[in-house]
Amino acid sequence: MTSSAIIPSPIKPIATLPIDEGLAQALLSSLTEYGAQLHGRRVWLACSGGRDSLALAALCVQLYHHGRLPFLPQLLHVDHGLQADSSVWAQHVARWATAQNLPCQILRAQVKGQDEQAARHARYEVMRAVLNTDDVLMLAHHADDQAETILMRLIQGAGVNGLSGMQPWRTQTQGGRRNALWRPWLTAKRSKISRYAQRLQLPYIDDPTNEAGDNVRSGLRRDIMPVLATYNPNVIDNIARSAQLLSDAQSIINDQAIEDLQRVAVSDLQLASAQRVLNIAVLNTLSSYRQRQLLHHWLTQDEPLPPTKQLVDEVFGLSRRQDSNHQTALFWQASLQSYVIRRYRQRLYRISSDWLDWLTLPLGKVEHVISDLTDEVASTPAIRQQPILMTLRSDTHFVWQAKIWPHALATLLGGDRSSSATFSKDMLIKDTLSKGTLRDKLANHQGTIRLSFAPLARQQRVRTVSMPRPQAGKKLYQTLGIPVWLRESLVIVSVDCRHSKDGQDDLIENAAAVPILLLSPFDCWILHTDIMRVESNHPAAFDEIAEGVVSQIMIQKAR
């Protein structure tokens, strides 16, 4: 089968044909610049079969044959199925690759939509599925593509980042895999590539939609660029130079934003792409333009494409509000995930929809039995003890676990010294545990400890050691500073102590199912109970407990 879109030249080996030194120099200069990043990594080349990608593949074959290129890329061709001849084009690319002894994979994509953007998204998705971590994907974008991209972004109102154009080397992470996009021909002109393809008589695919398409890029290529060239024949080079200058400026802006983010981010509340948190009080110490740039950078984390200026402005406005209304939620449908941006007190949250859905999953009750805490603590140094590990909630995306080390539990239940009983990651209030109490009783008998982890009921009253009286519901949430979306993810840890007496299990007096801890995914609080009493300030045991009780979230499936 044939297609009228395929240039009618014979398929033949091209390794020994004359090399275009200008195009070779552009590729080899980029290879020198990014040689350290390329070392030891597998390289693929996205090949549509069009003039540009087939020419880049041909040049790689020639340079490799002459020992000037240390690798031979593997070709990836994507059949979108959008053109009637798309399957013929795929077979044609495979035959040409075979003639050059180039490995080639044909991939098929399901395009959701009919426009070029939908096809581009589907194309990159199927190629990413083939790439392994740290693989490199070569792209044949050239200087004319760069100029069209910048003009297209200019009329769309892009900022410095958008107007810096496509980058010659870009690292991206998705689904837990890190890959690089490499564009070695951004300094090469389309006209030079065309002459090279004609000299080699490359049988490339001349897709008619490239010139006659009704998208913005095709219109700029067909109608605008020729007119601009009449004003300045160096328009392509000049736009490329401006893009490089803007790219340098964007690098400076990025460095400043990264430095600001280190100051403003609330590290204890970060959860990769699921939850990003800023301290609004620290954010407001920056100038307004640095705040906007930081918010742009903060929102863009974990996403390949930036937010709109409108969203950045809305988030900026949310951060500047002085009222106590925490109900406002801004929604952002990004490329990889959807997010909600909310403010709670002096913190700004960017929360993924997956994370919000996970937080609504029901919590069940789980238990753990320790045969004899006293013996375990006395016989095993703290550094060698194994923690009690309990899974509180999990699915394919996230796992919430509580870790409690025996020595911390022993201290919590009444250690050998007076100590602080406060347990919060961001605040120390120097209340204390009494000396002796329950652990003294445990030392005098053989007994078991049953730890239970159960969801906090909405009207269940609890009292942390920093509270003067028990609280429940909204009052408790406000006192502890728990945002609305975390209020269904609170767990009470209770201890039930029993000992053997005449073959029967009897409860130790005043120690049956005593709540000792309140856990959230990001925080822990010690609860005031009858087996503890406040005495004096002594932070040593708090440090021991803080190191030995951990509430943690682990990501099962990264976006």
Q: Main sheet?
A: 6 strands, mixed
Q: What's the N-to-C terminus distance?
A: 41 Å
The beta-strand count equals 21
CATH architecture of the largest domain: 3-Layer(aba) Sandwich
| Low-confidence parts | 416-446, 499-511, 533-537
In one word, what is the shape? elongated
Query: What is the CATH topology of the largest domain?
Result: Rossmann fold
Roughly how many Å is the radius of gyration? 32 Å
Count of helical segments?
Answer: 20
Summarize the structure.
This protein is of the alpha+beta class.
Provide structural commentary.
- This protein is of the alpha+beta class and 559 residues long.
- The protein is built from 20 helices and 21 strands.
- It is elongated.
- Residues 416-446, 499-511 and 533-537 have low confidence and may be disordered.
Main traits of this protein?
elongated, 21% strand, 559 residues, six-stranded mixed β-sheet, 21 strands, alpha+beta, 20 helices
What's the helix and strand layout?
Elements: H1 21-33, H2 35-38, E1 43-46, H3 51-65, E2 74-79, H4 86-99, E3 104-108, H5 116-130, E4 136-138, H6 143-155, H7 160-163, E5 169-174, E6 177-182, H8 190-200, H9 209-212, H10 216-231, H11 235-264, E7 275-279, H12 280-283, H13 288-300, H14 309-320, E8 329-333, E9 338-344, E10 347-352, H15 353-358, E11 366-370, H16 373-379, E12 388-394, E13 398-404, H17 406-412, E14 419-420, E15 432-433, H18 438-442, E16 447-455, H19 473-480, E17 491-501, E18 504-507, E19 514-520, E20 523-526, H20 540-548, E21 549-555
Parallel strand pairs: 1-2, 1-4, 2-3, 4-6
Antiparallel strand pairs: 5-6, 7-10, 8-9, 9-10, 11-16, 12-13, 13-21, 14-15, 16-17, 17-18, 17-19, 19-20
Helix pairs in contact: 3-8, 6-10, 6-11, 11-13, 13-14, 17-20
GO molecular function, one term: tRNA(Ile)-lysidine synthase activity
Organism: Psychrobacter halodurans
Main location: cytoplasm
